[in-house]
Amino acid sequence: MKNPLRIFERNINKKKNSDFETIKSIFFYDIFDIFVNRYQWHNLPKEILPMYIEQTLFWHGLGVFIKDDIAGYAFMNVSLSGLPDIYNIPQDRIAYTANGYIEEYGKENSCILWNNYSTMPYYYKALMYADAMANTWKTKCINMYAQRTPVALSSSDNEKLSFEIVGEEYDNYLPIIKLSDSLNLKDIKALNMGAPYIVDKCEQELRDLWSQVLTSLGYESNPVEKGERLVTGETAGNNGQVEANRNVGLTLRRRCANAINELWNLNVTVDFNSELPTMLNGYVPDKYMQKGKEGDEIE
């Protein structure tokens, strides 16, 4: 028996699933790009690509700095094995790359870089947010479609061909549908769905989700939309959470940078990549400054 709701919509499930996955991928790689661009690595050996460091941490949650006798300095994927040390970390480090390189290293000639203390890749969180964003986006599109065509059509089998033509023309935004005199309109019925308008709520949900993503990555973000100016407390309301999330990655990267500096006499440093004039970045608004008797500003 044919589904009466799927008369003229051929391959609809396949198309919708494909659209959803495409939208999800777009959001996912937008988040990926922001993650990779979060930190600035300074004075790295020229052989090491900073982008690859962050890409590895995004997908795997850890990587290893090594110095090869032939290739020189490098940052690679790592597989930990062997007996654990007193900190419950396996002592053997198998560094490997996609081109077939594989070599075993230890504490004396390598340094592990962790993305976070839980050792979990950000990939899973990015996937979660991308799925929620894609779902919100598709919900918005469906609701917009419902405002355009807020009806359901039904017909008898005798009017199947005419019904398909009417449905396709309706689907193509035609303001006027021309019908034949021989068409029996009594056999074609329309049900008004009366879908409420929630596009604005979906847009706000997307802003909220992006705010959550940016906060988790250590960026200041405020999803509130107001016609008037926001007060300082509203714009800086989540600074504590932002700083906490920022420092999780920054502390571990700086610790690793100090370790490779001591191991190979380098001068590598790491900073968070943000130039916004915010309090987290060292900018103090004038309202928090005091003026002395001579007009000098005192923090």
Helix and strand layout, with pairings?
Elements: H1 12-36, E1 39-42, H2 50-60, E2 62-68, E3 72-84, E4 90-96, E5 102-105, E6 110-114, H3 123-148, E7 151-155, H4 160-171, E8 188-192, H5 199-216, H6 232-235, H7 239-264, E9 269-272, E10 290-291, E11 297-298
Antiparallel strand pairs: 1-9, 2-3, 2-6, 3-4, 4-5, 7-8, 10-11
Helix pairs in contact: 1-3, 3-5
Q: Mind telling me the C-alpha Rg?
A: 29 Å
In this structure, how is the largest beta sheet organized? 5 strands, antiparallel
Overall SS class? alpha+beta
Name the poorly predicted regions: 1-10
Anisotropy-based shape: elongated
Percent strand equals 15-25%
The helix fraction, in percent, is: 40-55%
Q: Termini distance?
A: 78 Å
Total DSSP E strands: 11
Describe this structure in words.
The protein is of the alpha+beta class. The chain is 41% helix and 19% strand. It is built from seven helices and eleven strands. The strands form four sheets. It has a five-stranded antiparallel beta sheet with strand order 5-4-3-2-6, with helices on one face. Strands 1-9 form a two-stranded antiparallel sheet. Helix 1 packs across helix 3. The longest helix has 26 residues, at 123-148. The model is unreliable at 1-10 (pLDDT under 50).
